[in-house]
Specification:
- The complex is a heterodimer.
- Chain A is mainly alpha-helical.
- Chain A folds into two domains: 200 residues, no CATH class; 71 residues.
- Helices cover 73% and strands 3% of the residues of chain A.
- Chain A has nine helices and two strands; from the N terminus they run αααββαααααα.
- Chain A has a two-stranded antiparallel ribbon with strand order 1-2.
- The longest helix of chain B is centred in the C-terminal third of the chain and has 33 residues.
- By secondary structure, chain B is mainly alpha-helical.
- Chain B is globular, with a radius of gyration of 18 Å.
- Classes of the chains: A mainly alpha, B mainly alpha.
- The interface between A and B is large, with 63 and 62 residues.
Chain lengths: 293, 224
């Protein structure tokens, strides 16, 4: 399912930045939990089931590590649970660890979704105008890597044919890879200089050249952009007036339940599950149209 | 004039971010603020590069050295921590200057993380590898002359890289800079630090001569 991936790059970039902004800078338990939930749902929608389960095996231990390790190092807080080596392990530190873990995993999940959606061509499309030289360098380097990988396999095969086998031991493997890398360097630099001559001959850097891209800003992009901005504004205003202030030390604070606070939670909750909803909607529409055939 | 204004803005931007972080967010989000600062610290070199007129040869040279460093990281994936990236960045910096070194290092971090996973650590890696390249470029003359100094630089840069990345680990795990946690992280990452240092040292000693020769030959052949 690729409903969100078909949006205009500027809109998806702004979306990711706004979710990450709230997730990173407003440390409120409800907002963090919402970000984690939204990120997890989005990642699950983007991936195959097996990959999602494998991810769980990675994130769960990480979650426990961050959550449990914090109270071992931080002894702030007033509610000791038990003593370890005469140091108190406090409830506050434990809860703070859990909230950190939720935030860290949430950010990681959103970065994962970002990797899936914001492919390098979108990144270059967005920044090509702003940093033309660097994005040229970036796009060339990205294009070189598969070429180099292919060539390095060729070099490695040729070396094997010459009798330069690599054994199982680490030193042997390292030596083998170093030989390949050294051969690659002179090949690639010679190649690069030819590319540069060819670019010069074709008039790189002359004025008035245009770029080609497939991205178009459609009405649906505009709608999504407007929704994102409105939904982002609510938690930002909430943070500015202090609704989302939350303290763990010395005593864990209370989660506000005033109407304004609930509006903040609802707005950010909607924002973070938005891509998941889009993906589900796309899947339903797809299945419906398939069933009609 | 325009150049100085943008530098001025940049110089003001970093303290502004830090101050905003201190006053706007009561729970002091050090990790994320330091992430913004790391990203902003890369900007001056990037901007300078955008402003100058750069020959196509130099552009492609940076692109291919970056791609080669990424290739090095990919080729050595099976051996954890043992990567030629820092060595490649340092050697590039020795022959083409600190700016090319910085760009190669930071772009290599950005691009290789498309394979190894982007995350909040990307700006830190960009900054760390860029910095190691920039420093190598500044110290190019003595480093080229003495193998011992080069070996020392390799080992120190491995330690420096590990120490810089551990700052991030601590900030992320604690939300603030906890000195005892930092010490614990440094100790627990000692095996990795050692691998970084040793691999940099080995790669630099083994590579600096043959790659240096190739780079010098390219320099004279194509007039870089």
């Amino acid at each position: 399912m690729k409903a969100f991936a078909n949006m205009h790059p500027a809109v998806s970039m702004l979306y990711f930045l706004s979710v990450l902004l709230v997730c990173m800078f407003i440390p409120h338990p409800v907002l963090q939990a919402e970000a984690l939930l939204g990120g997890a749902l989005f990642c699950a929608a983007l991936q195959k089931r097996g990959a999602a389960l494998r991810d769980l095996g990675f994130y769960l231990p990480l979650f426990l590590m961050v959550a449990v390790v914090n109270p071992l190092f931080s002894h702030n807080g007033v509610t000791p649970l038990f003593f370890l080596n005469e140091n108190p392990v406090t409830l506050e530190a434990l809860l703070y660890g859990v909230s950190l873990a939720v935030m860290v995993i949430g950010v990681l999940l959103w970065c994962k979704a970002y990797n899936e959606i914001m492919t390098s061509d979108k990144f270059l499309y967005l920044f090509g105008k702003l940093i033309p030289k660097l994005s040229l360098v970036l796009s060339m380097a990205l294009r070189f890597i598969p070429t180099y990988l292919r060539q390095s396999r060729r070099v490695s095969r040729a070396q094997k044919a010459m009798g330069l086998y690599a054994g199982k031991s680490i030193t042997d493997r390292v030596k083998n890879r170093m030989r390949v890398l050294a051969a690659m360097i002179s090949w690639s630099l010679e190649n690069a200089m030819e590319t540069s001559a060819s670019m010069k001959a074709r008039g790189y850097g002359k004025k008035g050249r245009t770029n080609f891209s497939l991205f178009r800003f459609r009405a649906s992009d505009g709608v999504l952009l407007a929704i994102c901005i409105c939904l982002l504004a609510v938690p930002l205003i909430g943070a500015a007036v202090g609704i989302t202030d939350f303290m763990y030390y010395p005593r864990v604070g209370v989660i506000q339940t005033t109407p304004a606070a609930i509006a903040v939670y609802a707005a950010f909750g909607t924002l973070s599950v938005l891509p998941f909803i889009l993906e589900v909607k796309e899947a339903i529409v797809w299945n419906y149209s398939v069933s009609k055939i | 004039m325009k150049k100085w204004i943008s530098y001025g803005i940049l110089c003001l931007l970093i303290p502004t971010v830090v101050l905003c972080g201190m006053f706007l967010f009561p729970a002091k989000q050090y990790a994320w603020i330091s992430l913004c600062v790391a990203l902003l610290s890369c900007l001056p070199v990037f901007l300078r590069f955008e402003r100058k007129s750069v020959s196509t040869k130099r552009l492609i040279l940076i692109a291919s050295m970056t791609a080669l460093s990424v290739l090095g990281r990919i080729l050595f994936t099976p051996i954890p921590g043992f990567k030629p990236v820092t060595a490649m960045v340092v050697i590039t910096a020795l022959y083409f200057g600190g700016e090319v070194g910085f760009l190669t290092g930071s772009l290599c971090a950005l691009i290789s993380n498309f394979w190894f996973g982007q995350g909040p650590w990307t700006p830190f890696q960009m900054f760390s590898w860029g910095l190691l390249g920039l420093l190598a470029g500044l110290l190019a003359d003595p480093l080229k002359r003495s193998k011992i100094l080069l070996a020392v630089y390799g080992a120190v840069s491995g330690v420096l890289y590990s120490a810089l990345m551990d700052v991030w680990t601590v900030l992320l795990a604690d939300g603030y800079f906890n000195l005892s946690r930092y010490a614990a992280t440094l100790v627990s990452s000692l095996p990795f630090t050692a691998i970084y240092a040793v691999s940099n040292l080995i790669f630099l000693l083994l590579f600096s001569k043959p790659i240096g020769k190739i780079l010098e030959r390219i320099q004279t052949k194509y007039g870089l």
